[in-house]
Each structure stands twice: as structure tokens, then as C-alpha cells.
Design a protein that fits this description.
Largest sheet: 8 strands, antiparallel, barrel
Shape: globular
Strand order of the largest sheet: 1-2-3-4-5-6-7-8
Structural class: alpha+beta
Amino acid sequence: MDNLQVVKSLYLFRRLFRIMNSIERQIVVLMLFALCITPTDTYAQDEHDESLGSHRHLLSVNPFGLVLFPWYNGEYERRMNPSLSLGISASQWTDNFVATTLAFRYYPSRKVFQGIYVGPRIGIFRTTTSDSSWVNRDPPLRHVQLGLGFEFGYAWLIGSEQNLSISIGSGATRLLGGESTAFPVLRFINLGWAF
């Protein structure tokens, strides 16, 4: 990763962190702490596990969202065992929608980061609504809600070392509290690096 990419990544994370209020920041810090202290593979490796490689982490983004749309998302996924991973993601759609989610992904093929995956998601969602009429200039209303959902998709690891990750997927999430709203979750094409 060159210096320009590092600067762009740091800018995106600082921007997302500034948008979050103090409650959201505390939840994100707690989720990261839980992710760091969660134990990973604690079993003896067998012959099947050797074919999985040594990849335990995956960082990914949607490049089309960064370039074509005002939609940003980034994801970190950690291998927990040969068929289960735990991930945390953050996304933003303009200034009206910000989300931080925690996801468990089950890979039936027992190859984490490869093949079909399915799993639940839980997250914090902040939506901002405003009255667009020129007569009424009320300040924007911000709603912070808990969301529960699921996702399914497909992931590939390619390259000689199988470090380059490409994944697609979809699902649905329901926001709880206030007006209970359901919306689709689309994972167009995420590109990432497994290490």
C-alpha cells in the first residue's frame, strides 16, 4: 500500500469518527475491543487445515462506492475457525446514513474467506432527515437505532498467494425502535487483501 492510499484511508476513518456521536463511538470501541479479545483457532491443525493457508485477517472496501458514488464502506474480517469469521464494518451514504455493524459469517465449505457464506448482522445505524421545504428550516433530525439482519454471499481468494479477495452478497436489515424499518443490504463488489 503506497503513502497516498494510507492517507486516503486515514482521512476516511477520521471523517467517519467525526460524524459519530459519543454513544456511537463508545459502541465502536467496545466492538473493536470484543473483536480483539475473542479467541481464535485453539485446536491442533489437521491435514485439511493446512490447505486453508495462513490467512487470518481480511481488509476490504467497495472501490466503486469510493469512486462513483457518495457511498463509503470498509470492512475488517477475522477468521475464528475454519468455517466461521467475525467482521466489523462501517459505511456512510452521503451525510444521511451512517452504519457500524458486527457480522458473523459461516462458510459451509470450511474455507474462511472463500465460497458461499451466510450469517447474522447487528449494528448501530444513524439516519438524518430534514425538511426540504424553503418555508420550514428546522434543524435536521438524527435517529440512532439498533439494527438486526442477515446476509449471504460468495467470496473468492485469487492470486498466487491467494491474498486478493473479491466478494459479493446481499441480505436485509431491520431497524428497531421508533419506526421499525426494513431495507436491503447490497454488497456489490468488495475488493480486499487477506493476510
